[in-house]
């Protein structure tokens, strides 16, 4: 892993965060005393000054799933369709947290990941608010440091040839591709606007990622960074990621109807917040949340609330 990028990631993960979010991370880790290894805070709430009324996003990294849950179906579900997602409340703040083992967190941030859901998020800013020990911190940093190179590896071959592209082109194309590889309840253009929230940050991380790729593959005659795969191979990889990502989104939605109390209300809240819709959940949908969630999908696609 390039030292420059690793240093940038380590510094960003260690940067200060809202004390209430930090306290929440500690309380979350305390729920899993035999398994908790790290707690990361990410998502749009990271940029908010006032967290009241928002839904914070955390990843809880555990040593392994049996240690987190005991011998239960939750451990099997987390292993087969990672991650499991649960609600959490602490001192008046609401959150949801996703559970991944250290091994899965490292794998899903890297180029071998079979879906974009983890590395696409951790190519963006995050904070490491709690770690069990120095080794847990080092492993979390090393895992997150794979995310930007993974995005760049897969995005560079997808850029139109024969054109000079700047770092913003790479980032915006990459995030557009990742948004198309999941069912996302976001307004159109959200994938592009991510970079505009902190262009200096994305420039620094992008330059470090390109420098690392250049060291691995050598520079071209004009100083260009070579692609790690052909455009045809990259396009085929993105098609696989898109197909699998859509399927996984449905499976995770179905699983959350069992693991996430009030999950269908959260789903409606998130879609309404991000897509500007006014979906109202009916009593029967709360009674049978899996069926209720599935019946929402055709409406959401037709209305463009999810893509």
CATH topology of the largest domain: Beta Polymerase, domain 2
SSE-based structural type: alpha+beta
Name the CATH class of the largest domain.
Alpha Beta
Outline the low-pLDDT stretches: 218-223
Return the average pLDDT rounded to an integer. Answer: 85
Tell me the number of helical segments per DSSP (H or I, 4 or more residues long): 15
Strand arrangement across the biggest beta sheet: 3-4-2-1-5
- CATH superfamily membership of the largest domain, which one? Beta Polymerase, domain 2
| Radius of gyration, in angstroms, nearest whole number | 19 Å
Report strand %. Answer: 5-15%
Model description:
The chain has 307 residues and is α+β, with helices and mostly antiparallel strands. The chain folds into two domains: 1-260, Beta Polymerase, domain 2, CATH 3.30.460.10; 262-307, no CATH class. The protein has helices spanning 3-14, 19-30, 65-69, 73-80, 102-108, 119-122, 134-144, 147-155, 167-179, 190-196, 199-217, 231-259, 263-275, 283-287, 289-303; strands at 36-42, 55-62, 84-90, 93-101, 126-131. The protein has a five-stranded mixed β-sheet, sandwiched between helices. The two termini are 34 Å apart. The relative contact order is 0.12.
Provide a concise account of the structure shown.
The chain has 307 residues and is α+β, with helices and mostly antiparallel strands. It has 15 helices and five strands.
